[in-house]
């Protein structure tokens, strides 16, 4: 029942591990996808940064151009000022000439001359003023149109640059938010991945524990089966002994019957005894004496009991105390027995202790036979010799116990012998 439960639990654990592995594969694929998306976003951010740097350089160039245009404007303003000063200078010169002409006209007392010079002066002043106003208006219109054009271009470039900068800022902000969100998801997935790996590790440990429990249960069942087989063998031996005893007794009973009944021609013991009894009854009146033939048979029964708390068990002990055999029941695991002790207690009185070498290792599915001194030849690692005594001891109650190097009991073998008397 425990073996079936262990198999069922092991199958459930394997299914759960497979499901967790599928989930882990999906999470790893999602993590790789998020990492690729983050890489693409980082490339997009790098491209936007380069574009931003280019636009910043363009803005810097426009600003330099604006500074140059501002300097050019200041230069033009200075030129206008210089021209205005020249015009003012020319005006003052013309005014001086006009005054001279007026003075000359004043000195000329002729009305005709006076009127002539006056008309000429008015015409000159009108021409100069018209030329001056035309030149001023042309320069003013040209400067105003040029400045308006340059300011419009600068405003257009500035607005476009501001719009691009705002778009880039919004895009960078969006990408940063998306990157932060993806990093948060990546952190959650990594944490979940770690949790799933921890669960898989725990399940692997649990599976190993279940396997060890299953192997221990299997070893216990093997030990129980071997014990039952040994008990059955002992019962078979005892039954055979009883059958042999029964056959012997049947043969003796046949012989006694023949002796009592006698042959066909001769009188047997029964007739002789009856004759003697009748004769005795005639001659003497006394108590009769009954004779009984009692046959007694002594037999002994030996029982064994074994147990183990691991893969190392006591397989066999010699009834004559010549050797002890240990075996490693595991199919793949070595068992280090360095400094382990094998103790034999004889009838609760005598105690014999054998200590394994410090570097001794019992290989998987192998056994070691330990002889008492003088009963065998050492051949490590399969055969060892106990040099401390000539025998492991013989008695009616023999306990063989295996202790590890920490003093913990790992295996036992108990041999009990009981005496029986059969009377017929």
Salient structural properties:
424 residues, alpha+beta, Helix Hairpins, 2 domains, five-stranded antiparallel sheet, 3 helices
- Return the string of H and E elements: HHHEEEEEEEEEEE
Shape: rod-shaped
Number of strands: 11
Main β-sheet: number of strands, strand sense, barrel status? 5 strands, antiparallel
The secondary structure category is alpha+beta
- Oligomer kind: single chain
Protein name: LTD domain-containing protein
InterPro entries: IF_rod_dom (IPR039008), Lamin_tail_dom (IPR001322), Lamin_tail_dom_sf (IPR036415)
Pfam families: Filament (PF00038), LTD (PF00932)
Keywords: Coiled coil, Intermediate filament
Concise overview:
This protein is of the alpha+beta class and 424 residues long.
Commentary on this structure:
With 424 residues, the chain is α+β, with helices and mostly antiparallel strands. The chain has two domains: 2-211, Helix Hairpins (Orthogonal Bundle); 301-423, Lamin Tail domain (Immunoglobulin-like). Helix content is 64%, strand content 17%. It has three helices and eleven strands. The chain has helices at 2-107, 111-261, 269-283; strands spanning 296-308, 312-317, 323-328, 335-336, 341-346, 350-355, 361-362, 367-372, 383-386, 397-403, 409-423. The strands form three sheets. It has a five-stranded antiparallel β-sheet. The chain has a four-stranded mixed β-sheet with strand order 2-3-8-9, with no helix packed on it. It has a two-stranded antiparallel ribbon with strand order 4-7. A hairpin with a 5-residue loop joins β10 and β11. α1 (2-107) packs antiparallel against α2 (111-261). The longest helix is centred in the middle third of the chain and has 151 residues, at 111-261. It is rod-shaped and about 220 Å long. The chain starts with a helix and ends with a strand.
């Amino acid at each position: 029942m425990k073996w079936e439960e262990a198999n069922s639990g092991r199958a459930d654990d394997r299914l759960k591990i497979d499901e967790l592995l599928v989930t882990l594969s999906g999470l790893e694929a999602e993590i790789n996808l998020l990492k690729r998306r983050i890489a693409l976003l980082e490339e997009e951010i790098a491209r936007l940064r380069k574009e931003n740097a280019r636009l910043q350089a363009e803005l810097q160039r426009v600003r330099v151009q604006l500074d140059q245009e501002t300097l050019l404007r200041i230069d033009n303003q200075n030129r206008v000022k210089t021209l205005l000063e020249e015009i003012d200078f020319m005006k003052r010169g013309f005014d001086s000439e006009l005054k001279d002409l007026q003075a000359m006209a004043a000195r000329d007392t002729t009305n005709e001359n006076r009127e002539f010079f006056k008309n000429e002066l008015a015409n000159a002043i009108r021409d100069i003023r018209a030329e001056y106003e035309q030149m001023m208006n042309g320069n003013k219109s040209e400067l105003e149109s040029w400045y308006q054009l340059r300011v419009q271009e600068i405003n257009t470039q500035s607005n476009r640059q501001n719009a691009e900068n705002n778009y880039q800022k919004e895009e960078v902000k969006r990408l940063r938010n998306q990157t932060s969100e993806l990093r948060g998801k990546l952190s959650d997935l990594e944490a979940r991945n770690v949790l799933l790996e921890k669960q898989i590790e725990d399940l692997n440990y649990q599976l190993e524990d279940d396997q060890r429990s299953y192997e221990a249960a299997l070893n216990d069942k093997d030990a129980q089966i071997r014990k039952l087989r040994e008990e059955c063998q002992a019962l078979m031996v005892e039954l055979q002994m009883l059958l042999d005893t029964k056959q012997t007794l049947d043969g003796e009973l046949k012989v006694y019957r023949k002796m009592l009944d006698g042959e066909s021609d001769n009188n047997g013991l029964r007739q002789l005894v009856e004759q003697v009894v009748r004769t005795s009854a005639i001659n003497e009146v006394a108590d009769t004496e009954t004779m009984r033939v009692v046959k007694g048979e002594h037999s002994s029964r030996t029982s064994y009991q074994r147990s183990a708390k691991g893969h190392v068990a006591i397989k066999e002990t010699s009834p004559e105390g010549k050797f002890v055999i240990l075996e490693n029941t595991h199919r793949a695991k070595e068992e280090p027995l360095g400094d382990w002790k094998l103790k034999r207690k004889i009838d609760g009185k005598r105690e014999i202790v054998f200590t394994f070498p410090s570097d001794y290792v019992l290989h998987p599915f192998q056994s070691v036979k330990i002889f008492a001194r003088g009963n065998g030849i050492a051949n490590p690692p399969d055969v060892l010799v106990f040099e401390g005594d000539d025998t492991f001891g013989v008695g009616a109650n023999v306990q063989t116990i295996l202790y590890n190097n920490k003093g913990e009991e790992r295996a036992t073998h108990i041999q009990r012998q009981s005496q029986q008397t059969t009377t017929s």
